[in-house]
TrEMBL record:
InterPro entries, sorted: aa-tRNA-synt_IIb, aa-tRNA-synth_II, aa-tRNA-synth_II/BPL/LPL, Anticodon-bd, Anticodon-bd_dom_sf, Thr-tRNA-ligase_IIa, Thr/Ala-tRNA-synth_IIc_edit, ThrRS_core
Organism of derivation: Candidatus Campbellbacteria bacterium CG22_combo_CG10-13_8_21_14_all_43_18
Example GO biological process: threonyl-tRNA aminoacylation
Name of protein: Threonine--tRNA ligase
Cofactor detail note: Binds 1 zinc ion per subunit.
Signal peptide coordinates: none
Principal cellular location given in the protein's record: cytoplasm
High-level lineage: Bacteria, Candidatus Campbelliibacteriota
A single cellular component GO annotation: cytoplasm
Length: 581
RNA sequence: GCCGACCUAGCUCAAUGGCAGAGCAACGGUAUCGUAAACCGUAGGUUCUGGGUUCAAGUCCCAGGGUCGGCUCCA
């Protein structure tokens, strides 16, 4: 038996074992479904009025280990719909499943291990008692989950477990989880002093410290540099708008509850912007454009605000105030491809710099569900075909996201993976023929006719918050020199060396470097320790030796030391910053 | 929003319903030291907020806020 298949069967059998143990301890609990997942399995139960918390897990786990030795084989039987439902008089969930299986004209089968029988399509180990290592699984957590994943349904209690073939693999997995915890961007953000949240300000509204603000600007400057080279211009817009703008763009209806709304004292309705495109259309619409002036490319790094549900907020990855590095290109139909490819260029350059591998996803409409999308199917199909041919020309592999398009057009989404294996959509290129229509955006072409323009939406980071959350976990907070809010620590050995340390510091600062002198009256060992913990790219100790020679000794955070004079040092560091390595 | 857990000093965490504490950080002093933690001292608290039970609440109950693990959602 292939390893993968055996692991699958192990997990599946363990899910049954979990249900058996739960029923042993909580006879009134109603088991529902228990599939295998990456790294383990889960099982959803309706515990009725009993509250199950994580404290119960060791007890359940113990019961699983107690039952396991008696599971030497299983019995299988097939029942008809009526008899099958008789087995579950008290359990509406299983009855529902039985009906579904019957509707699909599939066999209704039951599998019995020991005294525990469960509705199941099969796929178990023949002899769990012999084949399962009782030390190779662990119940991890308890969570709520809607029956069938539908929020209109009752919320069940889900028990998650990790399971492998050997104890060693389980321990390796648990260690990976520990590692991921250390890299959690919320923890690193605090340690690196980049951002904070305040209960007074509110959930999902990060406040940026001086260091965090510096990092944000450095990232944005990088994007801006790449855009500027490609003919973009900066624009700025207010963060509010009258309702009218969004009624015209279609956002008022589509955004619904996610929009922060404001009523003025005169009774007018305003909204805080959840996106920037409609504002930007009004900058474009300020005059009549000649085809010779196209494209117009507007870049704007600015915050948008979305009233996300509190339970969905998560560190920087899901917030209510979101900084988009947004840009909109207004161009002629025939220019769209070239402009899209320019954006793709920027995306590639940007992410390569940080060592990210990107996956490409083409997010398209859902032709069976067109009420979520503006325009007709044929317009969408043309737009999707355009994108497909561009992506293929580019030679990129891509997946399809059916129904995941923006309501105004398809998107090429770029996806980065974080240390926890979660995938985050970061950059996006979107093509929009709908908003130019709504706002009547055109240029005058060679034949002196009005020509409808198309609009490209392009975010490189997507949002600075989300990018930083992914990048913090990707880098574990080890920032390259150019992005480090502090670049060099200078550690004077004793107070006699403070003045010289400050002189050196000021020379480096004058050269544009971000330097700090640690002139606390503490032993050198303590300063070194603090430095080593801090993730600072470089530090140097300054004492009598340095004061009497023109050599400085600089050490990087990997412990590699070099000696050189100040001029060469500045040159070396500047080079490293410029190359963004 | 929903299910469950949690919230104590700037940070990490203690404290059977019975005097709110430690380490680190901060501040003051002594020491001025060459590669991972000098020594002594001082200060620091609406125990998330509001209400309730109790002779007595950080601890128990209710409501709200926030955080965490998930679910649902994410134009």
């Amino acid at each position: 038996m292939a390893n993968k298949e055996k692991l699958e069967k192990t997990r599946h059998s363990l899910a049954h074992l979990l249900a058996a143990a739960v029923l042993e301890l909580y006879p009134k609990a109603l088991p529902t479904i228990g599939p295998t997942i990456e790294n383990g399995f889960y099982y959803d139960f309706d515990f009725g009025h009993i509250k199950i918390s994580e404290e119960a897990l060791p007890k359940i786990e113990k019961m699983m280990r107690k039952i396991l030795p008696s599971w030497h084989s299983y019995e299988e039987r097939e029942l008809n719909r009526i008899d099958a439902k008789k087995e579950y008089r008290e359990n509406p969930y299983k009855k529902e499943l039985i009906d579904e299986i019957a509707e699909k004209k599939e066999k209704i089968t039951f599998y019995k291990f020991g005294k525990f029988e469960d509705l199941c399509r099969g796929g178990h180990l023949k002899n769990p008692a012999e084949e399962i290592d009782p030390e190779a699984f662990r119940l991890l957590s308890v969570a709520g989950a809607y029956w069938k994943g539908d929020e209109k349904n009752k919320m069940l209690t889900r028990i998650y477990a990790a399971a492998f073939e050997s104890k060693k693999e389980l321990e390796a997995h648990l260690l990976t989880l520990e590692e991921a915890k250390k890299r959690d961007h919320r923890k690193l953000g605090k340690e690196l002093d980049l951002f904070v949240f305040s209960e007074l300000v509110g959930a999902g509204l990060p406040l940026w410290t001086p260091k965090g603000t510096l990092v944000r600007h450095l990232l944005d400057d990088f994007v801006w540099q790449l855009r500027k080279e490609r003919g973009y211009e900066r624009v700025e817009i207010p963060h509010l708008t009258k309702k009218n703008l969004y009624e015209k763009s279609g956002h008022w209806a589509k955004f619904g509850d996610d929009l922060f709304r404001i009523k003025t004292r005169e009774g007018h309705e305003f909204a805080i912007k959840p996106m920037n495109c409609p504002h930007h259309t009004q900058i474009f619409a300020r005059k009549t454009w000649s085809y010779k002036e196209m494209p117009q490319r507007y870049a704007d790094t600015t915050m948008v605000y979305r009233d996300e549900q509190t339970g969905e907020l998560h560190g920087l990855s899901r917030v209510r105030s979101i900084t988009q590095d947004d840009a909109h290109v207004f161009c002629r139909e025939k220019q769209a491809k070239e402009e899209a490819m320019k954006i793709w260029d920027i995306v590639e350059t940007f992410y390569k710099t940080f060592g990210f591998e990107l996956k490409v996803k083409l997010s398209i409409h859902d032709k069976d569900n067109m009420d979520r999308f503006m325009g007709d199917v044929s317009g969408w199909e043309k737009a999707v075909e355009d994108f497909k041919s561009w992506i293929e020309e580019k030679g990129a592999e891509y997946g399809l996201g059916v129904g995941e398009a923006a309501f105004y057009g398809p998107k090429i989404d770029f996806i980065a993976k974080d240390s926890l294996g979660r995938e985050w959509q970061v950059a996006t290129i979107q093509i929009d023929r709908s908003m130019p229509e709504s706002f009547d955006l055109y240029c005058i072409n060679e034949k002196n006719e009005k020509e409808r323009v198309v609009m490209l939406h392009a975010a490189i980071m997507g949002s600075i918050e989300r990018f930083l959350s992914v990048y913090l976990e990707h880098s574990a907070g080890i920032f390259p020199l150019w992005l480090s809010p502090e670049q060099i620590f200078i550690l004077p050995v004793a107070k006699d060396h403070n003045a010289f340390a400050w002189q050196t510091c000021n020379k480096l600062r004058k050269a544009g470097l971000r330097v700090r002198v640690d002139d606390n009256s503490e032993p050198l060992g303590k300063k070194i320790r603090r430095t080593k913990i801090s993730k600072i790219p470089y530090y140097m100790v300054i004492g009598g030796n340095e004061m009497t020679s023109d050599k400085l000794k600089i050490e990087d955070r990997n412990g590699k030391a070099e000696e050189m004079d100040l001029k060469n040092l500045i040159e070396k560091l500047k080079k490293e910053i410029e190359s963004r390595s």
